[in-house]
Specification:
Blueprint lengths: L5 E4 L5 E4 L5 E2 L1 H14 L4 E6 L5 E2 L1 H7 L2 H4 L2 E7 L3 H14 L5 E4 L2 H13 L10 E2 L1
Parallel strand pairs: 2-4, 3-5, 4-6, 6-7
Antiparallel strand pairs: 1-2, 1-8
Helix pairs in contact: 1-2
């Protein structure tokens, strides 16, 4: 049994998901993360995904990430990768599932956060609880 992803809302208004090493992402996982995301925050906000070494992602999981349910709470997504393979997975997701929100791949957190900053400014005036799950 693999470790579970961790999802939380940072003080900066960015939702974050950290995947364990060599994670195999399934549709069940992404649906559960979406449920937890909705439980933590119903406000549409930027998402930072730490997917440094995700090993695989089911096609259905990738499709769900571009679905109406996902779009309700994601205004933009930055994905941090470390390996060439994980970058290729992210590129395939963006090319073939065309998320309806801005999406960019990065190799470091500082650049990802800088890219997400304009989407955080859109949150001003929206109040929501800060929380954590998983």
């Amino acid at each position: 049994m693999q470790a579970t992803p961790h999802i939380w809302l940072g003080d900066d208004g960015i939702m974050r998901i950290r995947f364990p090493q060599d994670y195999q992402l399934t549709l069940t996982d992404i649906r559960e993360l979406n449920r937890q995301h909705h439980d933590i925050s119903k406000v549409c906000r930027p998402l930072l995904v730490y997917a440094e070494t995700v090993a695989a992602a089911e096609h259905e999981a990738q499709q769900f990430a571009s679905s109406r349910e996902a779009v309700e709470v994601v205004s933009a997504m930055a994905v941090i990768v470390r390996s060439f393979f994980t970058r290729a997975l992210a590129d395939i997701f963006m090319r073939f599932n065309k998320p309806p929100y801005p999406t960019q791949v990065f190799t470091n957190e500082a650049e990802a956060l800088a890219w997400l900053e304009p989407y955080c400014k859109q949150l001003e005036g929206n109040s929501d609880e800060h929380g954590e799950s998983a």
